[in-house]
Amino acid sequence: MIAARILIVEDDRIVARDIQHQLSRMGHVVVGMSASGEDAVRQACSQQPDLVLMDIRLEGEMDGIEAARRIRDAHRIPIVFLTAYANDEVVHRASLTEPFGYLLKPFEEPQMRTVIQMALYKHASDTKLRLSERRYAATLASIRDGVILSNRDGLVDFMNRAAETMTGWTAAEAAGQPLSAVFVAVDEETLEPLEDFSAVVLRSGDFAPPERQSRLLPRGGGEPAGIVVEERCSAIIDDRNEPVGSILVFRDLTQRRRIAEALRTAQADLAHIGRLTMMGELAAAVAHEVNQPLMAIVTNAGTCLQHLSQPQPDLDKTRVVVERIVRDAQRAGDVVRSIRALARRTPADPGWVDISALVADTLELVRAELRRARVTVETDLQAEPPWVHGDRVQLQQLVLNLVMNAIEAMSAEDLPERRLRIVTGSADGWFRVRVEDSGPGLGDTDVDAIFRALYTTKPDGLGMGLSISRSIVELHGGRLTATPGASGGSVFEFVLPVSPGGK
Ligand SMILES: Nc1ncnc2c1ncn2[C@@H]1O[C@H](COP(=O)(O)OP(=O)(O)OP(=O)(O)O)[C@@H](O)[C@H]1O
Ligand SMILES: [Mg+2]
Fold first, then answer.
1. Ligand located closest to 484 CA
2. How many other C-beta atoms lie within 10 A of the C-beta of residue 437?
3. pLDDT band at 348, cuts 50/70/90?
4. Which parts of the sequence belong to the PAS domain (predicted)?
5. Which spans in 76-108 are helix H?
6. CA–CA separation, 228 vs 77, rounded Å?
């Protein structure tokens, strides 16, 4: 038995006391006794009983039915009426307050026990049901999917907020309307009308057909062309396994498609930026590599002019200088071609290259710079093969960049000695070139950073030399590294495979 806290409302004090005794015997607690409707409403509010036993005729203005109505509206406390008469009019008025039971006076204790138990039990299950309904309502209100419930005749029973937004109907307007009028689905492309999905479910008796994509037309038709939705529908089945309605759930695909579209655009933009970056790096590389031959051409052209301004110009000497200009101009052209090949990630003009000879040639190219910076050069070059398979111009650019960096590092500092040492040699299938300087070294500079394009610590540097050099080495299947020198300075070393393809 459920023990309950009960309020007795009865104007006959003797009857009230009698009921109180009976309730106590049953194990219930009487939390108050009122003789008037007004007092009953007050006590129900302050005591919050589990149940009110309510006489209909009371002292004062307010009768029991009115008091019951107020208590139910304000507190949802279950009411059981106690009454000596049950004429139709009274019963009708009382029934409007949704009482949980009637006890006709005079009544016996067992009768009262049963009515009270049933009232408490019904109240408990009503509360549970209301809670569960609220839970569903809150869930349906908070989800973004549209939900429409229809009855077995295909008429709308309920729709949630998302469904209201997407269909343009309010739940109140849609209630009782055919689902096919509220949710007008057409083929996404052809705009042919589609059969109402819930009708399919109810006719076929299937629990749920596969989901489909459709276009949901706006209320009243016309523009805009509606939204594309994904629909799912399930039958609602009763205890006898009969469909009693359907639930249609649909989702707006517009946003998902917009995100996918934005992603595609972003990817295209990124590819474009990638190309632009490459173009920028290409331009920087051309500027970087062509600078050296251009400077040489300017210097030699100046020398030429000096010769020619003599009263008796020495034409043989002048010819030698002009030949140098031609050679440098050709080299500039070769360099541009090799950089373009580098950007395409292919060796421009592969062949067998004698790296040691190439180092010697390169030192020849920068003789003027070496002299100006007062750098002593030491070499230890392996004269015999193996040779390396690769692009001569690119490999020369590589050595030139490393040598120029070494010269620049040493000219910046006030150094006791300026020594450039280049060693070449082969072992284990690799050809090794080591360029060592006695400059300030890399200190605590991040070694990875110096290889990045546009990283420079020089006021007029482009920061391209090492990034181009690393690309060249990698394109030839080798590796370029930087380490501190044994006695200060820095060591740039690269290895290249001696057989084609870097195997
Ligand atoms: N031999 C070296 N000794 C010390 N630091 C070096 C040496 N070589 C390169 N670095 C450092 O690495 C940086 C990047 O070199 P990188 O050749 O890529 O560009 P840069 O020489 O600054 O400019 P440029 O594009 O004109 O060659 C240099 O600015 C310098 O700080
Ligand atoms: Mg450089």
1. 1
2. 27
3. low
4. 132-205
5. 88-95
6. 48
Does the beta carbon of 461 sit less than 6 angstroms from any atom of ligand 1? yes
Burial, 186: exposed, middle or buried (Cβ in 10 Å; 0-12, 13-18, 19+)?
A: middle
- Compute, in angstroms, the gap from residue 466 CA to the centroid of ligand 1: 7
pLDDT tops 70 at residue 275: no
What's the CA angle centered on 11, arms 8 and 17, to 5 degrees?
A: 55
Atom 9, ligand 1: which residue's CA is nearest? 405
CA-closest residue to ligand 1 atom 11: 450
* Residue ID of nearest Cα to ligand 1 atom 28: 456
Query: To test the ligand 1 pocket, which listed residue (398, 403, 408, 418) has its Cβ within 8 A of the most ligand atoms?
Result: 408
CA distance 487 to 419: 12
Q: Is the CB of 468 under 6 A from ligand 1?
A: no
Query: What is the CA(401)–ligand 2 centre distance, in A?
Result: 6
The SS3 call for residue 460 is coil
Residue 366's pLDDT is what?
Answer: 84
Tokens of residue 96, six digits: 């409007």
Residue-wise pLDDT tens digits, 399-455: 999 999 999 999 876 888 999 999 999 999 999 999 999 999 998 888 989 998 888
How many other CB atoms sit within 10 Å of the CB of residue 199? 16
E strand segments, 84-218? 101-104, 146-151, 156-159, 185-186, 212-216
User: Distance, CA 406 to ligand 1 centroid (Å)?
Assistant: 8
3-state secondary structure 29-82: EEEEEECEHHHHHHHHHHHCCCEEEEECCCECCCCHHHHHHHHHHHHCCCEEEE
